[in-house]
Amino acid sequence: MGPLRILIVKTSSLGDVIHMLPAVTDAARARPGLEVDWLVEEGFAAIPAWHPAVRRVIPIAMRRWKKRWTAADTWREIGVARTSLQATDYDLIVDSQGLFKSALWTRAARGPRCGYDAASAREPVAARFYDRRYPVAREMHAIERNRRLLAQAVGYELDDLRPDYGLSGLAARLPAPGVALPGRYVVGLHGTSRADKEWPVADWKRLGLALAGVSRPLVLPWGNEAERQRAEEIAAAVPGTVVLPRLGLDALAVVIDRADAVIGVDTGLMHLAAGLSKPGLALYTATRPALTGVVPDRHSISSMENRESAAELSAEAVIADLLAKLPLA
Asked: Quick one: which of 138, 144, 154, 328 has the fewest CB in 10 Å?
């Protein structure tokens, strides 16, 4: 009997794609020799490639294509993606996105199609596209939903309720980021998709000064012009703060993996920090972490923790909690 070949359909967003990694670890442990292909949005294609069990990443560009549906190159790229999907006869095609658009993509590949049943899928109509449908409570955290779906589809029992993201030693497997970094530092993930998810700039400045006092300068990534300006404002008030150039996911993963700790708001890179076993704090100012908060890797020693109450989000509390998590040496 040859290896089990499966296709994962989990296209976006950054945090959602990271949430799927522990399920792949489970499946690879349960089925030695497992070969995984993964269909994903091009902007997140680096993430599946980090997992040792993933053989091939198939990028698509729905976000870009929908802006140019009538362009010839759009349909040419769609054809390339379909050809890539049809190059393998899969033993299972598993759509863990549970959306109409992701379910459509399962029809472009060859093999039995699996996914959530109508009561469990984010968009119930998606279940009509699957050959096999599985119940997974929607009240569960996204990581657990992914793990339970794949366990039912492949046919194994979960051996540990704590997730293993499969990211051990990631920094050593990726190229150096090509930026100058302090010897010891804390990554501050200040950028997020909504203004109400942000932590006040004044509090970032107070945190930066406290970290500078213990020789752990803030290192600040950014992804758009507004975030760059905020990072520069923080750096102007806090000597020693490093504002990174705009980096790709591979470089950001290395920067995060080498940090002493990570602190940030509700953003996908916080899930990467948790998957890399980094200590730190996730600050939920407008959303509740019960369903999509950070969940530390099972190998974490000093874990990443969620903070959501007003008292926990005060600058004083955050500074005290983060300083207590920093390695002593």
From this structure: 328
